[in-house]
Amino acid sequence: MKVVDKMNASIKAGTTFFSFEFFPPRTDEGVENLFDRQDRMASYGPTFCDVTWGAGGSTAELTLEIASKMQNMICVETMMHLTCTNMPTEKLDDALKQLKQCGIQNVLALRGDPPKGQATFQAVEGGFASALDLVKYIRAKHGSHFGITVSGYPEAHPDIIVDDPQQMDKNYWADLHYLKDKIDAGGEVIITQLFYDVERFLKFEKDCRSIGIKCPIVPGIMPIMTYGGFQRMTGFCKTHVPPHISEALERVKDSDEALKNLGIDLGTAMCKRLLDAGAPGLHMYTLNLERSAVSILENLGLISKSKVTRPLPWRRPATDKRAQEQVRPIFWSNRPKSYLSRTSDWDEFPTGRWGNAKSPAYGTLSDYQFMRRHSCSGKWLQKARSAWGESLSSVDDVIKVFVSYCSGRVEVLPWSESMGMMTETNQIQKQLLQLNQRGFLTINSQPRIDGAPSSDPHVGWGGPNGYVYQKAYVEFFCSPQRWHSLQTRLKGAQSLTYMAVDAAGDLQSNIGPSEVNAVTWGVFPAKEVVQPTVVDPQSFTVWKDEAFQLWETEWGKLYEPESESHKVVTDIASTWFLVSVVDNDYVSGDLFKWFDEESANGHA
Amino acid sequence: MKVVDKMNASIKAGTTFFSFEFFPPRTDEGVENLFDRQDRMASYGPTFCDVTWGAGGSTAELTLEIASKMQNMICVETMMHLTCTNMPTEKLDDALKQLKQCGIQNVLALRGDPPKGQATFQAVEGGFASALDLVKYIRAKHGSHFGITVSGYPEAHPDIIVDDPQQMDKNYWADLHYLKDKIDAGGEVIITQLFYDVERFLKFEKDCRSIGIKCPIVPGIMPIMTYGGFQRMTGFCKTHVPPHISEALERVKDSDEALKNLGIDLGTAMCKRLLDAGAPGLHMYTLNLERSAVSILENLGLISKSKVTRPLPWRRPATDKRAQEQVRPIFWSNRPKSYLSRTSDWDEFPTGRWGNAKSPAYGTLSDYQFMRRHSCSGKWLQKARSAWGESLSSVDDVIKVFVSYCSGRVEVLPWSESMGMMTETNQIQKQLLQLNQRGFLTINSQPRIDGAPSSDPHVGWGGPNGYVYQKAYVEFFCSPQRWHSLQTRLKGAQSLTYMAVDAAGDLQSNIGPSEVNAVTWGVFPAKEVVQPTVVDPQSFTVWKDEAFQLWETEWGKLYEPESESHKVVTDIASTWFLVSVVDNDYVSGDLFKWFDEESANGHA
Fold first, then answer.
1. Contact B531 A528 (CB under 8 A)
2. Least CA distance to A450: which residue of chain B?
3. Is residue A366 assigned to a domain?
4. CA nearest A429: which of A454, A458, A455?
5. I want to staple A319 with a disulfide (CB 3.0 to 4.6 A). Which of A103, A283, A391, B478 is the partner?
6. What is residue A572's predicted lDDT score, i.e. its pLDDT?
7. Residue B363: what pLDDT?
8. Contact residues, chain B, for A470 at CB < 8 Å
9. What integer pLDDT is reported at residue B601 of this predicted model?
10. What is the DSSP string of B455-513?
11. Dihedral sign for Cα atoms in the order A91, A97, A102, A104
């Protein structure tokens, strides 16, 4: 979707939008850390995130890869910068083609800085000399397909900032008319260069309107995070710094922490003035950092850690292709990126009833270019070994790791792409802990919910005035002995449906092979019942390969192939069962009592 | 579906099946009464119903029409009899073609009686001489498409019953071997001729098994209803009547009522013995009457008026074509036959999400050959006039009729195809009464239900161990003044969504044109949420034409075109609004308070 449409919808609804800008990190580990950060920041619901093109297009390939993952794995509406620097037509054509392919519809068209070693900008052979040329070319070649954003300079482009006030005024207005040309050529949104003088932005905005620019004008905000960085940036951009800001900074410049906090306070005050004066939204230059940008938005009441509103329990990529996606198997709920990757070839997404999906094949796990690339790095191996055991002498050592994960002492397990357990599982943390202590190694679960308001901060999702429901769910590995003993007890449990399978594919279940169980659903005004999460044998069979494989590819590889530790892991992977249990009585069931031998026998 | 498959499923599940046999009545009114009766009897869940071919095929056309309506409007699995009498090949081909067209898959293949005036059976030119020929022909021509049932004669075919015991024994075994031939040729089920001596059936069943007949053998039961009828029937069929039965009948033969009750008791005892001895089901020869057959099944505990189990809130025809039908608009819930007729051309049924339906066009109301044909008869007009008013002098007279309908003093209104209100509306009868007294003429409604057990006798449906839900719904006609005043009040009602339209099509609504609101849904173990009833503007727009038209075609036509009474009706139809209101708060909403001016203002 074009960001201009999202902005206009926000303006119409009387809400304030915000967005985050990132740049391509220089190291692989930096890239992976960025994805983790974006993952968290995306949960606040930015209207879009953008990624810069890197100086001189040097990071073109990496930028495209990051943009694609942002759009398709982080699931945030993504805008990619494009500059003219070192950019012949073929290279631009190629970049736009790739954007189309990965479902990105938004670009920020810039001239960019002169190539290294050159003082002034000159177009490359067969390339573009200005952002205006770029906008015109994209529109000529791709019609209205792309949403095009352009840069606005509240204090004029640094290249034309001069000391002579009369000349400066001329230059300022020439710059404004050039901006108008970019809009007339097809630019739809203006994001401004960073500034610290709100008055200058307000004048700029007024001046834009006076020459007929009607599109959204979004102030670009760069929170002050370090003293040195601030000095360099304002110098480079020739940004006017109001005296009260410089003076305040001078007072705390020796304390990094104090300066950062001051930056948040100053940023908050500045943004508040902008919003009060009518700015429709805020564009945050994050410098790939989280705290300052997020704190400012929190101070403004635009985001709240306890009030994350989710349209669905899971995050859907903002691409047209997946716009109809309504249903997902529960199995990947802790590995959404793996799911997205393995379904990326699907032409059509199951809409509503899962059973109607034409059973498209899941991509193989090996096709999946794992996001957490640092899992191959020495640092990661070291961290993983310290969390999952320098060595393992028996199954009990593995059980201890799962128990530690439940109590929060271990942050990550191979079956989860994110750090820590989901907040909603807090409700059943005690029960999960007991399960793991009993040797049922849980990798996925949800508590039962019998009609919570859709606005509930932990389990709510969807629109207002709805009710959401969940059937209690737990999925775990356990030894064949434990499984057979549990299975006997489950025969007394009328409301429970289960599937158990070992690595070889021996499936034991008390439901039919084509049954699809909706385990999360929501009822909303004037809507059909939305049922976004299901449990079904077909996808379970696909998932189990991935689940068993992760023992080896993530955990086993920490140890020497012939070691005892390695054997402990591979023994589990080759002999244990993966079990999925749903308690269909979401009104009054108690899923966990069946794992307690005494309690279960009392009820059976 | 073939009845043999349904029978085998019942046998496998350890349940007892039953079926009802009817014959084509001689008068139009008789036919319409039969449909009403079948409608009620179908709600008990017979495995199938069958209709006879009439002596000598004289009622062929009527039989086909009745069978088609049974299958497609009454929505019961239907079996049609076919006899050889006066049946050349072309006529049979034509009948089978018609059966295929209307989705009937089951036939009962009989030789039939000799044509009138002939003493023994002779095939017509180019026709069939025996049921065996018929079975062979159907299998040769149509492969396994049709389910074929054949007749079994526990006391041998009447034609070959003789006094000489030795010859009789020979004849009996010859008849059995002929039956075996019919099964070998493709017969799948045996239904027996009526009998009153259970021992003879049990011997017959045993003898059948002894010669290798393996298919279901279903005893045919004709409850004794009149003394004369019983005498004629047993004489004609040469049926052995055990002395205890004849003696008991002789004692009460002078009282019709006593005899009928005795017939029920004797039938119950006889069936109980049959079931105890292992009969898998019962085939009831109803003679188009309800009480005896239903009472016997009730006595046996096979059916219960308070425990009707419905797979869905509405009844779906048992045809392959509609097997996927999962969703219906609420508007036709009191006129299911009209809905079935107007959607009979749909190739595909909306599965799951209504919005995905390719919006097939509804057939026009005039295409709809109204089931209640007697509505054209003088008798019906008289009855309708006495219920809806010999004359109307003002709207108040119309209001009185609706109020009487709510209190049960009027049995039927033009907007309902069945007699009396649905049992679930009893819960809101008081509120509906008040609404009608206030001039909101209700034609459709349902109470809110927040998770009732799916086994609830009034509102339950679907499988066991589920929970069903409903959003409160009411639909009514009211004057423009009442509507505008109500609409103002509804602005204060956050949880209410409404659509109002007049005959000219002026639609006023607080929901989008493509919103689909599920107002009935159920949550079941190991299933997706089933949402069989929806409210949506698209079908409302189709329905409103029908709803407004019924004022004239059903009610207005009771009066002279220029009369005051006629004007009262046409004025309503041309100026009033049809309004549909849903309360989306099924957990704690009170839909009706908004109709009470004082109460609503207090809340607004």
1. yes
2. B451
3. no
4. A458
5. A103
6. 97
7. 74
8. none
9. 54
10. T-TTT--SSTT-EEEE-EEEEEEE-HHHHHHHHHHHTT-TTEEEEEEETT--EEESS-T
11. positive
Model confidence at A132, pLDDT cuts 50, 70, 90, reads very high
- For chain A, what is the domain count? 2
Distance CA A449, CA B60 (A): 58
How confident is the model over A452-503, as pLDDT tens digits? 999 888 889 998 899 999 999 999 999 999 999 999 999 888 899 999 999 9
For an interface test with B, give the residue of A449, A450, A529 to mutate (most B CBs within 10 A).
A529
Quote the domain boundaries for residue A575.
321-351+382-603
B140 and B200 inside one domain: yes
> pLDDT grade, residue A360 (50/70/90)?
low
Below-70 pLDDT ranges, chain B: 55-57, 115, 305-309, 347-360, 365-377, 420-424, 598-604
In this structure, are B416 and B479 located in the same domain?
Answer: yes
B357 interaction partners in chain A (CB closer than 8 Å): none
What lies within 8 Å, CB to CB, of B585 at 6+ separation is A465, B448, B495
Tell me the one-letter amino acid at B558.
L
Q: Which of A299, A330, A361 is the last residue of a domain?
A: A299
B260 with B388, same domain? no
- Residue A540 near chain B (CB below 8 Å): no
- For residue A189, give the 3-state DSSP assignment: strand
Q: Are A449 and A459 in contact (CB under 8 A)?
A: yes
The answer to whether residue B576 neighbours chain A at the CB level (below 8 Å) is: no
Q: Is residue A150 part of a domain?
A: yes
| Best A328, A471, A511, A523 residue to mutate vs chain B (most B CBs within 10 Å) | A523
Q: Does A430 touch chain B (CB under 8 A)?
A: no
**A314 in any annotated domain:** no
pLDDT of residue A372 exceeding 80, the answer is no
A353 touches chain B (CB under 8 A): yes
**C-alpha A169 chain-centroid distance:** 43
Structure tokens at B213: 């007949």
Q: Which residues of chain A does B528 touch, with a Cβ-Cβ cutoff of 8 Å?
A: 353-355, 516-518, 531, 534
Question: Residue A338: is its pLDDT beyond 90?
Answer: no
Is A417 in the active site?
A: no
Q: Does A534 touch chain B if contact means CB atoms closer than 8 Å? A: yes
**ipTM for the assembly:** 0.80
Assess whether B204 and B337 both reside in one domain.
no
8 Å CB contact of B517 and A525: yes
Judgement on whether residues A293 and A329 belong to the same structural domain of the protein: no
Helices and strands of chain B, counted as H and E runs? 19, 18
In this structure, how many other beta carbons lie within 10 angstroms of the beta carbon of residue B200? Answer: 17
- Please tell me the predicted confidence (pLDDT) of residue A43: 86
What does the alpha-carbon distance between residue B349 and residue B363 come to, in Å, rounded to a whole number?
Answer: 14
Question: pLDDT class for A504, splitting at 50, 70, 90?
Answer: very high
pTM of the model: 0.83
Q: Is residue A310 part of a domain?
A: no
**Contact between B525 and A353 using a beta-carbon 8 Å cutoff:** no
Q: What is the CATH classification number for the domain harbouring A45?
A: 3.20.20.220
Using a CB-CB cut-off of 8 Å, the residues of chain B touching A352 are: 352-353, 356
- With an 8 Å Cβ cutoff, is B278 touching chain A? no
User: What pLDDT, in 10s, does the model give residues A33-83?
Assistant: 888 889 889 989 999 999 998 766 678 889 999 999 999 989 999 999 999
The rounded mean pLDDT for chain A is 89
Give yes or no for a contact between B321 and B334, defined as CB atoms under 8 angstroms apart: no
Residue in B with minimal Cα distance to A513: B526
The verdict on a CB contact (< 8 Å) between A521 and B527 is: no
Tell whether A233 and A326 lie within a shared domain: no
Strand partners, B582: B473, B497
Backbone angles phi, psi at B88, to 5 degrees: -70, 160
Q: Does B588 reach chain A within 8 Å, measured CB to CB?
A: no
**Residues B485, B570: one domain?**
yes
